[in-house]
Design a protein that fits this description.
With about 625 residues, the protein is α/β, with parallel strands linked by helices. It has a 21-stranded mixed beta sheet. Strands 23, 25, 26, 27, 29 and 31 form a six-stranded antiparallel beta sheet that branches.
Length: about 625
């Protein structure tokens, strides 16, 4: 469309997005009143004139990324509305940009020594990884500012107090500012919806709140030096989400926090001092159903929780839906968990002392007990049984503990063949079944399960593939009904019903991990055994089409092969015993893997701004 404006003359087009067109235009030192937008990515040294952009009198949008410029001062046109320049070469922002709306100058030598004057239209600023910024200046004249991002400004030590009184600020993120000890003494940000200082490791104080802040609010203070929250925290009426993960100095949370009307998510994993003081507010929380805390998600891992602490949690927060108390010291789960009728997800992984789990409420959909190697036989049996009860739709990951798939399951077999999928046939309706996958030796990783009917992948049509964190010598139990909504299940039924013929159903592991065993349990109230068949596959020898070689071996040769095989197995077993770390060390490594993965997810947000500013 733009090329139709001027098929031959680049300088007469309104927008230039193709880098060869941009490079053709920039050496031109003539005034241009046509160009309104330019985007240029990946450009080394060039023969631009310093005032190449200044001569574009109508330029409103300028996006430059990974450009290598030797000059330090670049005059820009006054009409500019959006400046997105990763690696902007100057240490200051031109003062003539009075109409600018969005500034994104990441990875720049900016110093921000002057206040933001005459920027009354500015709504967006992103100065992430500008390592020369030590002080964020006065923005009292940028009253329209809505979004401010300062991630990775490693020398930032101070914010001007005016930042705390911006009436339209909705988003402030300054993660990994490693020299920042204090944000502000007071804030009154009535529009704020997101505040993040993750990984500001010496940030020790949270500001006092002035006035009510009732917008839906998410606060992230992961891995900071916060010790306590101010009493005025109760004025954050709109607070919904608070992440204090790995705040190792945090020793106290006010009970009033849990009575905020919209507060539903708290993450305090890795706060060991908090675990010891958690019972303080138990008596101060209301006991009537109408006034109980509304908390729905609680992450409280790595906190040295004991049995009595877990009992306090269950009693205090009856509305919990997601509970993560992994890597703690308790031995048993309290029987009162059965009263948690909203609970859907329970993470108990790496609780090395855990022995007993009572019967879970029917609302539970996911249980993770990876590396809980002290589980009693009765608990393991209970989990196998509960997966198979009609009223439950349950997924469990737990250690195998040398147990096999129970005999009362409808089908189980060793998995000795490639490719890595299980086969069954169904007719009439899609089968309501539970699946069991017993994994032997494998690298610690996420395993995806893909479902297909008659070789057609149904995951892409209904849902993406389903991923599970599993580990060596663990079993994954999963009710297939969990994978799909009621509407999607009806579509699966219709697919199988068509023609009333036998349809082949396959479940494949991705990557191609071959479990030691797999099993199927059929929910008889929903699926008749007459409408499902289990297929046994023969192990094929593709590289040895002539199988008669076995018969040609003499007895001595067979004995020698058997002896060699046994010796080889002994050698492998001894090597594994020598190389394997102690159980506690191994679990620590795997826990660290989980935490690093969560950290990577946070780091994925570091370069945010490129997508939203273009949108």
């Amino acid at each position: 469309i733009v090329k139709q404006e001027a098929p031959k003359e680049v300088r007469d087009r309104s927008r230039l997005w193709f880098h060869e067109d941009v490079l053709e235009l920039l050496p031109d030192d003539k005034e241009n009143k046509k160009i309104e937008g330019i985007k240029l990515v990946q450009c080394e040294e060039h023969d631009w004139t310093d005032n190449a952009f200044e001569k574009m009198k109508k330029l409103r949008i300028l996006i430059l990324r990974n450009t290598n410029l030797s000059c330090r001062t670049i005059p820009l046109p006054e009409q500019l509305r959006l400046l997105d320049w990763k690696g902007y070469p100057s240490n200051s922002i031109p003062s003539n940009l009075k109409k600018i709306v969005a500034l994104s100058l990441r990875h720049s030598p900016l110093m921000l020594e002057k206040p933001f004057q005459n920027f009354e239209h500015l709504t967006y600023m992103n100065f992430s990884h500008c390592e020369s910024i030590t002080h964020f200046p006065n923005v009292s004249e940028a009253q329209c500012l809505r979004k401010l991002i300062l991630n990775g400004c490693i020398n930032l030590v101070r914010f001007d107090e005016s930042v705390g009184f911006l009436p339209n600020l909705t988003y402030l993120r300054a993660s990994k500012c490693t020299k920042l000890r204090k944000f502000l003494s007071r804030i009154c940000l009535p529009s704020l919806e997101h505040l993040s200082f993750n990984w500001c490791r010496i940030l020790g104080l949270f500001p006092d709140i002035v006035g009510k802040m009732d917008k839906p609010l998410k606060i992230c203070l992961k891995a900071t030096a916060i010790q306590e929250l101010p009493d005025s925290f109760v004025d954050l009426v709109g607070l919904r989400y608070l992440d204090l993960t790995s705040c190792e100095k945090l020793g106290y949370l006010p009970s009033s926090l849990f009575m905020l009307p919209n507060f539903v998510t708290l993450k305090v994993g890795g706060c060991p001092q908090l675990g010891r003081s958690f019972a303080r507010f138990r008596g101060s929380l209301p006991t009537t159903a109408e006034s109980r805390p509304s908390l729905e998600t609680l992450h409280f891992s790595h906190a040295s929780l004991r049995d009595e602490d877990l009992h306090v949690i269950m009693q205090s927060f009856p509305n919990l839906e997601v509970l993560d108390v992994s890597s703690n010291n308790f031995v048993s789960i309290p029987a009162c968990i059965h009263e948690s009728s909203y609970l859907t997800s329970l993470d108990l992984s790496y609780c090395l002392n855990l022995q007993e789990i009572p019967k879970l409420p029917s609302s539970v959909r996911k249980v993770d007990v990876r590396h809980c190697n002290s589980l009693s036989a009765s608990t393991t049996s209970m989990l196998w049984s509960q997966v198979c009860e009609e009223i439950y739709k349950l997924q469990v990951v737990m250690p195998t503990s040398n147990t096999q798939i129970p005999e009362w399951w409808d089908h189980c077999t060793r998995w000795k063949h490639n490719p890595s999928y299980l086969n069954l046939k169904a007719r009439g309706k899609f089968p309501a079944v539970a699946l069991a996958f017993v994994f032997g030796e494998m690298n610690y990783q996420s395993v995806g399960l893909h479902l297909s009917i008659d070789y057609g992948d149904v995951n892409s049509a209904y849902q993406p593939s389903h991923n599970f964190r599993v580990a060596e010598n663990h079993v994954l139990l999963c009710d297939l009904r969990l994978w799909f909504s009621d509407e999607e299940w009806k579509r699966l039924d219709a697919h199988v019903e068509h023609g009333n013929k036998w349809k082949t159903v396959k479940v494949r592991c991705v990557p191609d991990i071959i479990p030691v065993h797999w099993g199927v349990y059929v929910y008889k109230e929903e699926t008749s055994m007459e409408d499902i068949q289990f297929q046994e596959r023969e192990l094929t020898y593709q590289s040895c089409p002539d199988r008669s070689w076995k018969k040609r071996l003499s007895s001595a040769e067979k004995l020698a092969i058997a002896s060699f095989s046994e010796s080889l197995q002994t050698v492998v077993k001894n090597l594994k015993r020598l190389m394997a770390p102690r159980e506690e060390e191994q679990c620590f490594c795997l826990m660290q893997h989980d935490r690093d993965k969560d950290k990577d997810e946070d780091e994925d947000e570091e370069e945010e701004g490129e997508s939203d500013i273009e949108a």
